[in-house]
Structure to design on (716 residues):
């Protein structure tokens, strides 16, 4: 059954509008541009890029902008490119088949799962994500699309998104924000039959805040984004959907009310009654209050309404450190939620109490995680270890239970393979695993065929992907270093020094102190000695949250050694890590480093993205790696919780360099008569065989469906 979802027609209308301004032969491209499905279709990106490569980059790989801004000459040339047109036609056919498939799973398209999250990392051109949480949410939507699961997603349309990063010569981070123009995104405002935008209102801090609803298509999955930047709202209200993770707590809490309460209202306004609400992290927790209000409006008592709402809600926590779980003072919650609690008919004091570990403790602030744990029928962490850490952390909520039976389970994260696998590796796997391998990726048997891939072919695919990264680094690091105002001569030498045949080690992610990037320069002498051998090069990147001064200092610390011999030639710190850069790094790096301080890594997902590209992980035994590492499929640093952070860092930095010097380098450079690193290739095979089926999004989504979403999952 095809269900028409609100916003479908509006997207089609915008595509038709754009098509009308293109040469006739290119009209299909306008339709393709309005659904992010092209992003994970082989060759999808090339269709747009080949129209005008330079402009594709200028437009931030936004296909709508590309088609709006490409010159008449470029469009005319594309309209005469038979290969391009054939590719576009086959893309359109494939998408029609994909969208036409019947949906699957325990939920009906009429009562879908509603997935609520503060950030989504769908694509570089929609910059409403900051890091792992958002990118995971984006991957989950893509996998739900592939799996034909009836799921709709709700988030916020931040008009300035997340910040962009530039580094000074000293390594100090500068932030700037770029306005997003939704008119130029592959998005459409959802409209009522009279043509006016559908809006909802939510009482926040005494004002009725209006929001309109943007619709984005992620394959089959609709993503609805609330936008309060409307003239009928006051300046401060319009600011609610300005920036992701804005530092001001008042605005932040207002965002959460809009996301949670407004999210459920938006679905109702669009005629969607969710069968289940999935709170991905506690930011959207107030959704429960709106679900309860709906129940109460149907006649239930407030207690019964809250319980009914709870039975429709599941919660995923991503935060393994107490300080990372956001809390707000009682008075702020009162002021922000007065209207919402009034509509539900509860005392705001009751809401605050539900967000305290010890409800009677007047000094304890309101915590979004505690509230979510209390108000959901199921809760899970995002790796096996994180499940345990969460049970320990939140056992106070269930004082009568032993810690092992605290009702928090885990679903380990996984990544959307088609989005992360590089083209050379994909072609290799298509050839040897059967061309439907992506549909069988969570089945371990699929990966047995890896043994049939000749070593030489596997190595060639690795080399191709590394060479592509090296080209990217040469280009990008030059631009970055010019922006840092480094001397020109040095920049040129440095760019030339990056080498496609040298062991390439990557470390890139949201830059938080617990990720311990600083271990690399903990013993500068040893680091410089390693670089002096000229057999290893490092690609680093990552943004620190604007108010995280400590994390910014870590990068500055790295920059202190930048003028030492060999550093500039073999180490780059690329500016402005984002979803455009991440796949390039993850495809090309031979070793992907992750050095979190245990137990602070809830899961980590970037290492999973390296796996499908034949990259090897060297990581602390924390998060996903604690259940992934088996001695043959990568390398590990100790994962126990250490009482002395300084001693731990010293020990782990030494262990890291021991591994690099004694195991990683010898394995990479140990070549046989054919020039092949046989033991390295054996390790890649072990990594892909053991990790790809277990840490792909297909496995993750299957777990969610079976263990979390299945209508019978309930906890006491
Ligand atoms: C996967 C990803 C992350 C998460 O990285 P971790 O190492 O798991 O923290 C962050 N940012 C981007 C752009 C990603 O693609």
């Amino acid at each position: 059954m095809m269900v028409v979802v609100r916003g479908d027609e509006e997207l089609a209308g915008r595509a038709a509008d754009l098509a009308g301004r293109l040469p006739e032969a290119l009209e299909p491209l306008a339709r393709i541009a309005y659904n992010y499905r092209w992003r994970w279709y082989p060759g999808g990106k090339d269709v747009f890029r080949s129209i005008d490569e330079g402009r594709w980059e200028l437009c931030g790989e936004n296909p709508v902008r590309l088609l709006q801004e490409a010159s008449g000459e470029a469009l005319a040339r594309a309209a005469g490119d038979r290969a391009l047109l054939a590719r576009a036609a086959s893309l359109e056919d494939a998408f029609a088949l994909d969208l036409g498939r019947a949906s699957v799973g325990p939920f009906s398209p009429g009562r879908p799962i509603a997935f609520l999250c503060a950030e989504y990392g769908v694509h570089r051109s929609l910059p409403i994500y900051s890091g792992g949480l958002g990118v995971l949410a984006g991957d989950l939507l893509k996998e739900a699309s592939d799996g034909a699961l009836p799921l709709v997603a709700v988030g916020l349309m931040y008009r300035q998104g997340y910040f962009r990063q530039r580094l000074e010569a000293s390594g100090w981070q500068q932030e700037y924000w770029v306005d997003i123009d939704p008119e130029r995104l592959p998005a459409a405002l959802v409209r009522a039959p009279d043509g006016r935008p559908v809006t909802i209102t939510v009482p926040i801090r005494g004002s009725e805040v209006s929001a309109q609803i943007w619709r984005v298509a992620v394959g089959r999955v609709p993503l609805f984004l609330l936008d309060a930047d409307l003239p009928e709202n006051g300046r401060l209200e319009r600011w609610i959907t300005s920036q992701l993770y804005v530092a001001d707590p008042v605005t932040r809490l207002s965002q959460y009310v809009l996301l949670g309460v407004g999210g459920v209202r938006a679905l109702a306004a669009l005629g969607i009654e969710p069968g289940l609400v999935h709170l991905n992290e506690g930011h959207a927790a107030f959704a429960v209050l709106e679900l309860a209000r709906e129940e109460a409006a149907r006649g239930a008592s407030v207690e019964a309404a809250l319980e009914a709402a709870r039975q429709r809600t599941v919660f995923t926590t991503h935060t393994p450190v107490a300080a990372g779980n956001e809390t707000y003072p009682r008075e702020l919650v009162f002021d922000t939620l007065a209207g919402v609690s009034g509509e539900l008919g509860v005392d705001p004091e009751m809401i605050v109490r539900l967000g305290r570990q010890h409800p009677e403790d007047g000094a304890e602030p309101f915590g979004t995680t505690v509230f979510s744990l209390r108000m959901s029928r199921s809760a899970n962490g995002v790796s096996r270890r994180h499940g345990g850490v969460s049970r320990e952390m939140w056992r106070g909520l269930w004082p009568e239970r032993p810690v092992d039976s605290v009702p928090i389970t885990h679903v380990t994260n996984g990544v959307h393979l088609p989005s992360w696998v590089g083209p050379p590796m994909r072609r290799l796997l298509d050839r040897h695993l059967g061309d439907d391998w992506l549909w069988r990726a969570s089945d371990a048997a699929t990966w047995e065929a890896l043994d049939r891939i000749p070593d030489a072919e596997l190595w060639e695919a690795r080399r191709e992907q590394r060479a592509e990264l090296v080209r990217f680094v040469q280009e990008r690091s030059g631009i970055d270093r010019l922006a840092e105002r480094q001397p020109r001569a040095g920049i040129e030498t440095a760019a030339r020094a990056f080498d496609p045949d040298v062991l390439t080690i990557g470390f890139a992610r949201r830059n938080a102190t617990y990720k311990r990037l600083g271990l690399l320069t903990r013993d500068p002498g040893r680091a410089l000695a390693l670089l002096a051998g000229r057999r290893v090069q490092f690609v680093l990147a990552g943004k620190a949250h604007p108010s995280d001064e400590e994390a910014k200092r870590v990068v500055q610390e790295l920059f202190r050694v930048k003028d030492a011999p060999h550093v500039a030639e073999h180490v780059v710190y690329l500016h402005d890590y984002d979803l455009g850069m991440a796949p390039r790094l993850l495809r090309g790096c031979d070793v992907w480093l992750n050095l979190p301080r245990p137990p602070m890594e809830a899961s980590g997902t970037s290492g999973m993205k390296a796996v499908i590209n034949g990259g090897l992980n060297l990581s602390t035994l924390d998060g996903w790696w604690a259940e992934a590492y088996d001695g043959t499929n990568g390398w590990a640093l100790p994962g126990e919780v250490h009482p002395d952070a300084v001693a731990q860092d010293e020990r782990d930095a030494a262990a890291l360099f021991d591994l690099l010097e004694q195991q990683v380098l010898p394995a990479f450079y140990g070549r046989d008569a054919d020039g092949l690193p046989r033991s390295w290739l054996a390790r890649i095979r072990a990594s892909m065989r053991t990790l790809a089926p277990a840490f792909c999004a297909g496995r993750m989504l299957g777990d969610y469906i079976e263990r979390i979403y299945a209508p019978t999952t309930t906890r006491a």
